[in-house]
């Protein structure tokens, strides 16, 4: 008895980048083009795999749409189990879309300013995909470290003083977070005797109260690591500095890494604390933390002059909204939150790529000038009344900037608006019929609206200064490989807007089983090692 | 024995945290090392403290688990040591790079007077 190739597809998103990344180390840096093409082929194959997994899980190729892969043929729950469900598939798709866009953007310039960009990129993909797929806590730690180690290298890619300063803080914060991760994992193993997330959810019932308390402490310490990754206040001060220092394609990938923290929290929290003896544990903390993050991001984005920092705070705001939505504890909110996550991740990543092109319009020192103008209240000189026709490059930049701004702040007509509208709609209809809307709901709605407003103010200030108030804007020379990925990412957002109904329906199907550990347990128990004579004899 | 180990880990962790908050990169990396030792020790004793019990067995049939130490935390701690070691070494490289580029070993890359 052997496995069908479909089963091995679950392992492909981890195996492909591992082999390609290692292979790329051997190719000399002189062969840029060859390295780039291999990298692109691998990334596109991951895109294909993600689409295939998306279809397989949604068509219920596996019962309940949950595919289980026993790595190295060890019986569950003793070995490391990889698990793919609808949520995993959609996250894999998101990561490969972003990766393809960043990679193409990096083709002409950014991948050449340092060595081993392509290998590090593949290792980053391996870590990200692994973190999505694994169902084992310690294995999750390993994939987190693979992802982080690659990201350390990528943040420092194109070594300069700013990057190294930001990198030093980024590395220390994440190393410390990893140690908390380990303490949490050790405590969970000490109390429950398992590291498999699904198995853990099944064992909560049988724990005595003292062990349950210890386990909760373990999970909270573990969550500290994810919350640091997802930049919850007060653990997220590293984020804006690192984002603005990293090279644009790397920064775009880091937007995704922020969301991995949120993804793991959604998965783990809903699995462990939706039902059973510890139901409802920690949701309040996520809600309060999310709201604090939202407030912090709102103030931060208003205070930023530099576009890189603006994008960083936009990512903080989106993390805060997500954490608050998860902590709100309303199952119907999860699918809207996922929609918001996809749309805001793509928009912030596109914005980070765009900034670099926009910066080419601004003459050096323009940012400094803008600051001084603000401080001394100087008026701009009135420009020439009759202007030249806007060149194509400037038109593209302006249009793309406006699209990014609309999605990030959640204004109609793009996907950001649908996400926020859905959020408010669900929040207002959350309570039992007839009861009023409680204070927390109002606070959350007000904060989300305020963060949108702050985003509009901040982005408009930047946009007006760059596109309208700039003296003699020079149309920058844009390469096709730089314009294409940004356009593609924005088109994905337009597609999300046009196909909001089917997307939300799919996300609802993916959010629904998350809080039903029984479904996952059933699938885990049903999975058998191949050629296991003892199990086969028992059947 | 539990108390001794717990106090030892506590001192090591506390000293590590104190060093992490210091302004020089060398102090930070020493702090990271101390914290990682404390954490590794913590993982190790999560399999409970036992004396003279082997972690592995090749015996046929069912065995009495009380006679053996839990091998799982030992495997985990090995992985954790290797990963912690690698990432700390990476930080060391960045630290040396920062020293060369900024001319100071302050964590902010500039001296504060």
TrEMBL record, chain A:
Membrane topology of the entry: Multi-pass membrane protein
Ranges where the NADH:quinone oxidoreductase/Mrp antiporter transmembrane domain occurs: 135-355
InterPro entries: CPA3_Na-H_Antiporter_D (IPR050586), ND/Mrp_TM (IPR001750)
Keywords, in A-Z order: Cell membrane, Membrane, Transmembrane, Transmembrane helix
Membrane-spanning parts: 6-27, 36-56, 76-106, 138-159, 171-192, 212-238, 250-272, 278-303, 310-328, 334-355, 394-419, 439-462, 483-507
Record localization: Cell membrane; Membrane
Coiled-coil positions: none
Family: Belongs to the CPA3 antiporters (TC 2.A.63) subunit D family.
Protein name: Monovalent cation/H+ antiporter subunit D
From TrEMBL, chain B:
Location(s), subcellular: Cell membrane
Residue intervals passing through the bilayer: 6-21, 28-51, 71-94
Topological category with respect to the lipid bilayer: Multi-pass membrane protein
Keyword DNA-binding carried by entry: no
Keyword tags: Cell membrane, Membrane, Transmembrane, Transmembrane helix
Coiled coil: none
NCBIfam families, per the entry: PRK09094.1
Similarity comment text for this entry: Belongs to the CPA3 antiporters (TC 2.A.63) subunit C family.
Record-given protein name: Na+/H+ antiporter subunit C
Organism classification: Bacteria, Pseudomonadati, Pseudomonadota, Gammaproteobacteria, Oceanospirillales
């Amino acid at each position: 008895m052997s496995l069908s190739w479909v089963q091995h597809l679950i392992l492909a998103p981890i195996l492909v980048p591992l082999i390609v990344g290692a292979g790329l180390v051997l190719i000399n840096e002189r062969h840029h083009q060859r390295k780039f093409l291999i990298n692109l082929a691998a990334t596109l194959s991951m895109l294909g795999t993600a689409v295939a997994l998306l279809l397989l899980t949604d068509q219920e190729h596996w019962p309940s749409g949950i595919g289980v892969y026993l790595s190295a043929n060890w019986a569950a729950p003793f070995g490391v189990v990889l698990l793919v469900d609808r949520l995993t598939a959609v996250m894999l798709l998101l990561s490969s879309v972003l990766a393809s866009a960043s990679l193409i953007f990096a083709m002409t310039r950014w991948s050449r300013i340092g060595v081993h960009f392509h290998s590090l990129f593949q290792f980053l993909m391996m870590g990200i995909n692994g973190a999505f797929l694994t169902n084992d806590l310690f294995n999750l730690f390993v994939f987190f470290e693979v992802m982080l180690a690659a990201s350390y290298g990528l943040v420092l890619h194109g070594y300069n003083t700013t990057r190294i300063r930001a990198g030093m803080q980024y590395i220390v914060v994440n190393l410390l977070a990893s140690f908390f991760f380990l303490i949490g994992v050790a405590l969970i193993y000490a109390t429950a005797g398992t590291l498999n997330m699904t198995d853990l959810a099944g064992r909560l019932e049988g724990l005595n109260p003292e062990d349950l308390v210890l386990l909760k402490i373990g999970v909270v310490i573990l969550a500290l690591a994810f919350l640091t990754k997802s930049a919850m206040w007060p653990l997220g001060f590293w984020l804006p500095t690192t984002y603005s220092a990293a090279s644009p394609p790397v920064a775009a990938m880091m937007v995704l890494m922020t969301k991995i923290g949120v993804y793991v929290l959604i998965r783990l929290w809903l699995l462990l604390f939706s039902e059973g003896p510890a139901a409802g544990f920690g949701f309040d903390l996520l809600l309060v933390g999310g709201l604090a993050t939202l407030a912090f991001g709102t103030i931060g984005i208003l205070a930023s002059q530099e576009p890189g920092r603006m994008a960083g705070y936009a990512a903080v705001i989106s993390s805060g909204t997500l954490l608050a939505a998860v902590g709100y504890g309303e199952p119907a909110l999860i699918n809207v939150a996922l929609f918001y996550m996809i749309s805001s991740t793509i928009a912030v990543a596109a914005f980070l790529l765009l900034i670099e092109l926009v910066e080419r319009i601004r003459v050096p020192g323009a940012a400094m000038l803008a600051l001084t103008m603000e401080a001394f209240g100087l008026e701009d000189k009135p420009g020439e009344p009759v202007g030249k026709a806007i060149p194509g490059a400037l038109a593209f930049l302006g249009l793309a900037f406006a699209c990014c701004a609309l999605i990030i702040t959640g204004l109609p007509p793009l996907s950001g608006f649908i996400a926020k509208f859905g959020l408010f709609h669900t929040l207002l209809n959350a309570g039992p019929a007839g009861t009023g809307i409680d204070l927390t709901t109002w606070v959350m709605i007000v904060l989300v609206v305020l963060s949108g407003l702050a985003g509009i103010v901040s982005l408009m200030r930047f946009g007006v200064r760059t596109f309208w108030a700039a003296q003699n804007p020079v149309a920058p020379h844009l390469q096709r490989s730089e314009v294409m990925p940004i356009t593609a990412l924005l088109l994905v957002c337009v597609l999300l807007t046009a196909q909001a109904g089917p997307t939300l329906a799919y996300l609802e199907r993916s959010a629904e089983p998350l809080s039903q550990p029984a479904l996952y347990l059933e699938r885990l128990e049903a999975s058998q090692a191949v050629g296991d004579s003892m199990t086969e004899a028992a059947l | 024995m539990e108390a001794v180990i717990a106090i030892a880990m506590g001192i090591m962790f506390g000293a590590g945290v104190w060093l992490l908050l210091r302004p020089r990169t060398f102090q930070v990396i020493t702090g990271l090392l101390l914290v990682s030792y404390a954490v590794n020790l913590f993982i190790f004793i999560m399999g409970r403290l036992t004396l003279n019990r082997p972690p592995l067995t090749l015996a046929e049939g069912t065995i009495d688990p009380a006679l053996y130490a839990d091998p799982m935390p030992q495997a985990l701690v090995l992985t954790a040591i290797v990963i912690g070691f690698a990432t700390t070494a990476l930080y060391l490289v960045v630290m040396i790079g920062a020293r060369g580029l900024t001319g100071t070993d302050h964590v902010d890359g500039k001296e504060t007077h």
